[in-house]
Design goal:
This protein is α+β, with helices and mostly antiparallel strands and 81 residues long. The chain has one domain: Alpha-Beta Plaits (2-Layer Sandwich), CATH 3.30.70. The chain is 27% helix and 46% strand.
Length: 81
């Protein structure tokens, strides 16, 4: 399957779910180009961006698993090619 460059945007509102989130990111680590985390104490959230180079089904699976974690939401943006 064709690989795409993508970005997963993640908002963490429940800090107790970060261990599960980190375990997922470790599991998919071979596809991760880089990641950036920004704490935002004023709103009590953390903002994380994950850059990936992976097949579309892998990207969607990871994002779906992240979105199922309590207090964590995610969205994906993919390159066209």
């Amino acid at each position: 399957m064709e690989e795409r460059v993508s970005l997963i945007g993640i908002i963490v509102e429940n800090i107790d779910s970060t261990d599960q989130l980190n375990a997922l990111l470790h599991e998919y680590g071979r596809y991760i180009i880089g990641r950036m985390g920004i704490p935002y104490p004023k709103k009590e959230v953390n903002i994380i961006s994950i850059a990936l180079d992976a097949p579309l089904d892998v990207i969607n699976t990871l994002s779906g698993k992240i979105g199922q974690l309590e207090g964590i939401s995610s969205k994906v943006v993919c390159s066209k090619a």
